[in-house]
Amino acid sequence: MAERRYLGIIPARGGSKRVPGKNLRLLGGKPLIAYSIEAARSSRRLTAVVVSTDSEAIARYAAARGVEPQGLRPAGLARDESPVTGALKDALAKYERRHPRVDAVVLLQPTSPFRTGRQIDEAIERFEASRADTITAVRPVRDHPWWVWRRTGATLAPWHTLRKMAVQRGALPECYVESGAVFVIKRRLAVRGSIYGRRIVPLVMDELSSIDIDTRLDFTWAEFILARQRPDAVT
Predict the structure, then answer these.
(1) What is the CA radius of gyration of the chain?
(2) What pTM does this model have?
(3) Which fold has domain 6-140+176-230?
(4) Nearest Cα to 112, choosing from 211, 234, 232, 31?
(5) Residue ranges of E strands in the chain
(6) When you count CB atoms within 10 A of the terminal residue's CB, does the N or C end of the chain come out lower?
(7) pLDDT tens across 166-175, in order?
(8) What is the C-alpha separation between 53 and 14, in angstroms, rounded?
(9) pLDDT for res 233
(10) What sign for the dihedral angle of Cα 24, 120, 131, 137?
């Protein structure tokens, strides 16, 4: 059987409301996007890696590091409200105009600097072994959903029930939240602008690898971690 083909796509807009210029902002002395480029290039299972961007500066940076930007992303796919699925579909179509069809797309968001090439390969291997439609990276929740309150006028009510809120931590059912660090998505889903198929399988990652840079405080936390102990993703 022919070896399966996987296209890594790093979506990196030039704009960001919360942190302007986030993807080129320095973290530990190099641009945030550099960490994802390095992780992707160290993967053994990715057939190719491309960057999808609307920014000339990001495109030049990616090309200088051996990652094809494929021309700039259409402006309609680079707004704050634009879903990442549009960028994936666009990048996949551009790639397959010049290369053989791939089996799956691997979404690598640049806001996950501590995800490693080994974890990318692990996600692909799980995708193959589990016959998943989608692999998504998750981490255990810090605040269990059974402990969540909702506002009802001037008072609070349990999101679920008071009985569930009284359950001790050790008896809580396992619960996870997506980290966004890596997705493996069947080609047919990406082509129609989707990420999730019917069979969604998790890749459980540790908290450090799951860090997602979304705010200035996230940058500060990541800088603190780098100053203390550099993760595998940046060595």
Answers:
(1) 19
(2) 0.91
(3) Spore Coat Polysaccharide Biosynthesis Protein SpsA; Chain A (3.90.550)
(4) 211
(5) 6-11, 26-27, 30-31, 48-52, 104-107, 134-140, 149-152, 155-158, 176-186, 200-204
(6) N
(7) 998 889 999 9
(8) 7
(9) 40
(10) negative
